[in-house]
Protein 1
Amino acid sequence: MIKIEDVLVVGGLLFAIGLYVALSRRNAVGILMGVELMLNSVNLNLIGFAKLTEAPRPIDGQVFAIFVITVAAAEAAVALALAVSVYRYRQSIDVDKLDLLKW
Amino acid sequence: MTGIDDTAVVIAFWVMAVVTIGSALMVATVHDLIHAVLFLILSFVGIAGLYITLSADFVAMVQILIYAGAISVLMLFSILLTPRSARDNAGVSYSAPIASVAILVAVVLIYAGLSTDWAYASNGFTSTAREIGNALLDPYALPFEVASVLLVVAMVGAIVLVRPTHEAGGTPLGEGEQF
């Protein structure tokens, strides 16, 4: 039987993997991949709550997930445009070398 | 009824969970960034499968269209448009501390999920697309409209960011800008 705890365990593991990817990559696109994994794990939890817990209007969890997907799409478009734009000036998107704002 | 009892659905859930977690681990460990994106697509498809087992068919289709379709292609384009940057994740600094932080976060999240007394239910959705449509147009009409504004702003912002400027020695749009 699938209970909400099973969904939360999968979501928690996925979030931790996404966190590791986002913190350990040097390439800006790699960092974005970790962020997308984390957003997906949150969506998984929302869908699980919509299905497996009591709620006055259970469909709300799925609507929230759709809004998260919308915002993630906008974020990915702007972030990847920033990466391409930075690459044009610096010939690199290695975030360790992008220290122009560092004192 | 406190959960999903159907044996086939339970098996599908755990198979999809293993596919999702396994390909996410491959994203974290594989060396080539292109391969990482391909495993990320597999992970997104696995998550869509998990959505279907949780009876969220419409969100699963949206997931495949937007994540596995659009965002992954966008990432591949960004990697291919930045050819001289490092594509491997070799020489990751602070790998062990980051891994321990991630494991700590996982332990905390899973402990919080397992120790909470949830109000169990098994909600049956008859037609999620119709219910989501009704929810988007009645209680969530304002966020729905704001989301459209957000998408327009993001689209215009992305165009402005990658548009070549005269100061950078580029040419206006439509004259064959060299990437």
Protein 2
Amino acid sequence: MANTYTAIATVTVGAGGASTIEFTSIPATYTDLYVLLSLRDNRASTSGDNVKVTFNSDTSSVYSYRLLYGDGSSAGSASGSSEAQTRIQYASADNQTASTFGSLNMYVPNYTSSNAKSISSEGASENNATEAYMGLTAGLWNPATQAAITSIKFAPYNGTNWKQYSTATLYGIKNS
Amino acid sequence: MPTKLVVDCSTGVTTEVELTAEEIAQMEADAAAYAEQKAQEEAAAQAKAEAKAAAEAKLAALGLTADEIAALGK
């Protein structure tokens, strides 16, 4: 059971927006990683947006995911394999209530292991309306050559730019 | 010019880096691919819903009650 959380780094998107947020040179001194995200992007939609996650700048087809989602009236699921990224959900999108941000977290256990790296994530977009999305995701990064995670990149799935005041904080967790 | 934020966890320094032309092209291609994927998922969901409604209408025409039709789906 994790008993120590250390904030490794945090970032807030500035006035010009940003196409991606990437944590690099992640130290290998922790057991697990945890990321808290508050995100809004420029997708012209009231449905929020998914978030692309890649590790170590690897965009080869070695990612997979299983996800569940609900929009306030119905639920659905989706999956993918041999993907160029895994995905988590939901960031807020540009046509949702102004100045609101989706809240997401992502847990990455055993990020320095020599095995495939799994993630779990949950999140919800904010929208002052009857339709608002929330979702759960399990994902996997399984490269041919396993390596410790040293960088994590977050990009809008359908949009192209994170909006100003989006934030991301990376935590390291030790189990002792 | 679009930029990306890179946070160096060893120094705590955040750098705003302009995207290369290749990165911009890739970003736009990814967005287009996702839009296509989402459209296909929505079309599949719509087709499934329409097929379900058509099946239920046929069952109702055969004389099944709404409760009986609903019980078939459980």
